[in-house]
């Protein structure tokens, strides 16, 4: 069928044609937005999970929910390096101005709003994040200490009356939150905590790798009371079926049951793979009916794409000893697995393991769901590694 009409959308943060299996998360955030409208506070939401399960797409959906309720929304994405950290702050500053401008739209320019904008100007000047060209009001005496935490808190405090007037909230939406620099992370958590105590609706809504909840807990012991942690995982059987079949049905294309089953088995409910195999099946189908032959062709094309993309991009980043670590992970009965299990495989010495584990986590190839164990960040990796080794 015409590839230019192909609805599937494999890629990072790309909207799927059907957002399947996420009703509970969308409803939880809806409730938070509804409570805000009644000036009631709730814990915020943190989404965590493997890469490719749909966290970014879900976070974006939540941001749209908040924006349509008139929230002042800012979105930033963590970056691991030091220049990355500076870029994130710059974006935070810029976005605050843009978001504040949007927030003001359609609302009366009251004294409360004017004061908030004055503090916003001093905040950006003090942190050197944005020049005056974006400023709407002259700086005032607030948010000028140059210390992120103090200034952010004053900024949020000064926005509180304006938020109250419109029963809305500030939402800072952070993707790849595990990569936010420590100082900014501490400031955001502290400010959300204090804001909560003062009844000010300031929410950090985050998405990140499975290590995120424990990172937040280590950063601030009260983090677990600030947030509701929601694991975003592969889709269950019914949702996976919807995600794969609905985009065809919506366009009057039928999928044969055996073809659908094959595509579902191969994608194991993993949203990114659903998009990959769905896209390939569409392209492999000559008419308005997806037969098993098209599905088989699609699986081949889809795997080829995965083998060109997400698997080698991880494997090639690993050093020789790190590869031994990954091979050991392919030999234990299942992951997550412990260091003791890896040592028992016999490829590496026990005392080599902690350093290798750390560097592989830094490279985003594995993660540690708790302090003891490790797992791959994408499913299907062991199969690729075994194939790779059998070809070598
Ligand atoms: N609920 C869903 N149903 C179907 N496809 C989805 C769903 N969520 C995400 N996807 C698809 O999965 C891929 C990865 O989504 P993304 O949000 O980037 O994942 P993550 O941020 O967890 O790495 C994208 O191609 C997206 O279209
Ligand atoms: Mg993402």
TrEMBL record:
InterPro entries per record: AAA_16 (IPR041664), P-loop_NTPase (IPR027417)
Residues in Orc1-like AAA ATPase domain copies: 19-194
Domain of life: Bacteria
SUPFAM superfamilies: P-loop containing nucleoside triphosphate hydrolases (SSF52540)
Family annotation (PANTHER family): ATPASE DOMAIN-CONTAINING PROTEIN, DNA-BINDING PROTEIN-RELATED
Protein name: AAA ATPase domain-containing protein
